[in-house]
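Late entry, written up from scratch paper. The run itself happened at the end of the previous shift, but nothing got recorded in the book at the time, so transcribing now.
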Amino acid sequence: MIIIEDNFNKRINEKTVIALGGFDGLHIGHRALIDKTISVAKRMNCKSMVFTFKNHPLMVINKAYSPKLLLNNHNKLNLLKSYGIDIVNLVNFDTDFMQLSPEAYITSLVKNYNASGLVVGFNHRFGYKNLGDIDLLKTLSKIHGFSLNVVSPVKYKGEIVSSSKIRNLIGEDGDVEKASKMLSRPYFLEGIVVRGKQLGRKIGFPTMNLDYNKDFLLPRGGVYYSLLEHNNRKYKGITNIGYNPTVENDKLSLETHILGFDEDLYDETIKINFIKRIRDEKKFNSLAELSEQLKKDKMFALKQNLD
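Output as recorded:
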């Protein structure tokens, strides 16, 4: 897979079929666009290409409204490569790009990247202030002579799959199970293990505190069954997101107890996959009462599958 970072300066000589979109999270709706792009490209003897953004557009348009991210570019590129895309262009969304008219935007795609076809979602909008829509694309496809493929909405249990829906499921509801169905994989966070107060060791449940990138979405507070990945190995875990009210902690933390693991991972990078929500965070009357609840949480985790 060829990766470029270009704002209409380079030219691609081979004919392309291009999927357009933000692809935040690369959920099953996005996968439908990817699969359609690859199939159309093969039929037209073209290269398949994804045209997306290196940064979220709202970080430039209005940072206050920019959503928390679901996936970083490194993992996004790895997924796109595994799907079989030939070319990915990570565009730097800046003030110049923001001011491109819908017509200039599409003309540049055709001119610079030799677009013989475009693939978009049913509600795709583009260009300055999102003035471009599907009707305009149909008109421009006739003017420029490219094929236009509009992909219908993908639904899960009757609901249209979208990045905003997935954010609500994870951040507001804590329903990581349903979100994982829409993503086709567990939602995860990566970060570095840092030292905490080490209070868990006193009650037999040592935990690892994760320092993660705050640009990414944190699941709703509570206790989760999780799978941790480190050095290509997976471990069952119990992850708590919250303020540990039993010990009157005033700082939000993300900490995990790994079952059957007692190695020092400080300063190591780990990945936490959120599999299932167990319960809300609760203030217990004593550390002994907290310990009894943690034993129940551990029994729940032990019964779960490792995959």
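Residues 2-153 form a domain with the Rossmann fold fold (CATH 3.40.50.620).
(Scratch paper discarded after transcription.)
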